[in-house]
Amino acid sequence: MSSNFVHVEFAAEDPKAASEFYAALFGWKIEAAPDMDYVMFDVEPGPGGGFPKADGETYKKGDVIVYVSTDDIEATLAKVEELGGKTLLPKTEIPNMGWFAFFSDPTGNRVGLFKSLNE
Question: Is the pLDDT reported for residue 95 higher than 60?
Fold first, then answer.
């Protein structure tokens, strides 16, 4: 099972403004996904990430979430529960990209899981 960091998200009330700040600060390449109200960034050599809209529910202002790749989200979430963690968001589809989920570890850290459609 792979377990690399594959994506980082910075929740923002204004994803466009946040992306402009980081592009100016670090020179990150920015790409908007307006159909998702989401802005992505590319960092060489990676991982890249995005700026989700802080909605107060799934994403709260100031959240920073790292995503770890997994070959099997359901199996990973089962192991999370077995080890004392908690599933926060079950496997959820990202159209034309793959799937993601959130869990918290026993100390309360929220972490994302990601499975690519192409793997």
Answer: yes
User: 98 is written with which tokens?
Assistant: 């793959």
Give the HSE-up count for residue 88: Cα atoms under 13 Å, Cβ half-sphere.
Answer: 18
pTM: 0.90
Predicted local distance difference test score (pLDDT) of residue 77: 97
* Residue entry with tokens 């690399």: 4
What are the domain boundaries of the chain?
Answer: 1-61, 70-119
Nearest to 16 by CA among 46, 51, 44, 65: 51
Residue 114's φ and ψ, nearest 5 degrees, are -140, 135
Q: Which class does domain 70-119 fall in?
A: alpha beta
Residues contacting 94, CB < 8 A, separation 6+: 100
Average of per-residue pLDDT across 74-86: 97
Q: According to CATH, what is the number of the domain 1-61? A: 3.10.180.10
Rounded to the nearest integer, the mean pLDDT of the chain is 93
